[in-house]
Write a structure and sequence with these properties.
- The chain is of the alpha/beta class.
- It contains 4 helices and 5 strands; from the N terminus they run βαβαβαβαβ.
- α1 packs parallel to α2.
- About 35% of the residues are buried.
Length: about 120
């Protein structure tokens, strides 16, 4: 099966990019594809464990990320983007953090890359 890589820059509730990532990644995994994702820029906010999505929003991005990881997805958040936004590793929802070298390897290793 194919390996899909996602580069996610969308904030959790600022656009449909975040929700699209979860739906696409889950669908790919259901079909047996491997999923790797790198969260950078404002996408790092999706990886925070304490989120309050607000009234009318049916999901927390941390819940979706944890569910994808439980199914085998590899998820990494940019340590430099975290630092620029004052986010500590203690604030993350159990995802790994790494440098842009992780992103370079992701791009080299996967069959297709989707940017959201």
């Amino acid at each position: 099966m194919a390996q899909l890589g996602f580069i996610v820059t969308s904030s959790p509730h600022g656009s449909s990019g975040a929700r699209s990532f979860y739906l696409l990644a889950a669908a790919a995994m259901e079909r047996g594809h491997a999923v790797k994702a790198f969260f950078c820029e404002d996408g790092v906010y999706q990886c925070l464990s304490e989120q309050n999505p607000g009234a009318g929003c049916e999901y927390s991005s941390a819940d979706y990320l944890n569910a994808l990881q439980d199914r085998g997805a590899e998820i990494v958040v940019s340590s430099s983007c975290m630092k620029l936004r004052g986010i500590s590793s203690d604030s993350l929802c159990g995802v790994k953090y790494g440098t842009y070298d992780v992103l370079r390897r992701l791009i080299e290793d996967v069959d297709k890359v989707v940017c959201l």
